[in-house]
Write a structure and sequence with these properties.
Blueprint lengths: L2 H17 L14 H13 L2 E6 L5 H16 L3 E6 L31 E5 L11 H6 L2 E6 L10 E4 L6 H11 L6 H14 L10 H11 L5 H9 L4 H12 L2 E3 L2 E6 L1 H7 L9 H5 L7 E7 L5 E7 L5 H7 L3 E2 L3 E6 L3 H14 L1
Parallel strand pairs: 1-2, 1-3, 3-4, 4-5, 7-8
Antiparallel strand pairs: 6-7, 8-9, 9-11, 10-11
Bound molecules: adenosine monophosphate and manganese (II) ion (2 copies).
The site of one manganese (II) ion has 5 residues, from α3.
């Protein structure tokens, strides 16, 4: 990548910031200060080893951003270790196509007290799961994220709530480190960009997002193959579980919602990670402004996915319920029953 292309990429997010909409949680945070980028570069250049982590049950943005930066750091001669703090450590099936999985270690093998750690797409300290202790033990923690609710739990924040994905910030970091885009890095970044923008459909899809996509696609990656990996490889059992969830879907006063139990999944042998896409079907309901899917995980907790069409800030609702997210896509964890969880959600929604 020539320097002028890099400059173009660096400039690319500026008009986007000026035009981007309020993504909630008290409005967009100001762009990342040059002094903070400089400090990040100094911390990284001084490090021999960099420990990377992202939020638990990683999505394309979390894992893609982390692996992309992992590749770039490795090519700069750094030792790189990457992980996420799930109790049952496994890369979700639909992200196994991402290159760079050789950088991953289970949380038990993650350094206990890293000199330098970087977190990706994790809006809170809690979202680091088992890696919380390692983060607390790290000398320096750079937090790379785009959630408006992120208050910065590290020693340095690279947080920009106007960025459509953490992958946008990861690309910036790679350029600033003097790295170049190759097809592997671009595949990881593209996975983040395409998932968090809802395939370039959400309001976060600015001209800068399309320009970034163009830079990534220019490396020769196959957008059709990535789309198939991400969305068109569900097992047949997914359809059976989806049918159960849709059988009990409720529409009440602008709110459409349903739930998926671990018993539903066990009946068809479907892993938890496979039910992530159900919210994308439920949210299509034209009569509803807000969509909710309660997903019971293997430990029996409800992982609550919420979506808004724009009028309601579900990010604020989920923050009030102990979770996080964005104006139009957010979530939280509940240990109550379905009925109690929905009662609490309706109460908070009424205030929003
Ligand atoms: P999901 O519904 O899992 O696709 O998540 C949508 C958004 O909500 C993402 O930006 C997540 O970071 C956020 N989110 C989901 N679950 C939680 C949680 N338990 N705590 C905090 N944020 C969450
Ligand atoms: Mn994420
Ligand atoms: Mn994200």
């Amino acid at each position: 990548m020539t320097p002028d292309v890099r400059d173009e990429a660096r400039r690319a997010d500026r008009p986007a910031r000026a035009e981007s909409r309020d993504e909630g949680g008290g409005g967009p945070r100001s762009a990342i200060a040059e002094a903070d980028w400089d400090r990040a570069l100094r911390l990284i250049s001084a490090a021999d080893e960099v420990a990377l982590s992202c939020h638990v049950t990683p999505d394309g943005d979390a894992l893609g951003s982390m692996l992309a930066v992992g590749f770039a750091l490795r090519s700069l001669g750094k030792r790189v270790v990457a992980s996420f703090g799930d109790r049952h450590f496994a890369v979700p099936r639909l992200l196994r196509f991402l290159p760079g999985q050789e950088l991953l270690v289970p949380p038990e093998e993650f350094p206990a007290e890293p000199a330098l750690m970087i977190t990706f797409d994790s809006s809170t300290f809690e979202r680091l799961g088992l890696l919380r202790a390692n983060t607390a033990g790290a000398r320096e923690v750079i937090v790379v994220d785009h959630h408006p609710s992120n208050e910065g739990f590290g020693t340095l924040s690279l947080i920009d709530s106007t960025a459509a994905a953490t992958a946008v910030l990861a690309e910036q970091l790679i350029y600033r480190l003097g790295g170049r885009l190759d097809r592997d890095i671009a595949t990881c970044l593209y996975a983040g960009l395409v998932t968090d923008t809802g395939s370039f459909r959400h309001s976060s899809t600015t001209p800068a997002v399309h320009q970034m996509a163009a830079r990534l696609v220019a490396t020769g990656l196959r957008t059709d193959e990535i789309a198939r990996e991400l969305w068109d490889r569900s097992p047949f059992s997914y359809l059976k579980v989806l049918a159960e969830a849709l059988e009990r879907v409720m529409l009440e006063d602008g709110l459409v919602w349903t739930y998926v139990t671990r018993v539903d999944r066990a009946a068809y042998g479907l892993p938890y990670a496979e039910v992530e896409g159900i919210i994308d079907i439920v949210r299509r309901t034209d009569e509803a402004e807000v969509a909710v899917v309660l997903k019971e995980d293997d430990q029996g907790a409800w992982q609550v996915s919420t979506r808004s069409k724009g009028a309601v800030d579900v990010g604020a609702v989920c923050v009030a319920l102990g979770g996080g997210g964005h104006h139009n896509a957010a979530g939280y964890t509940s240990h109550d029953s379905v009925e109690e969880t929905m009662a609490a959600f309706r109460r908070e929604l009424g205030k929003a």
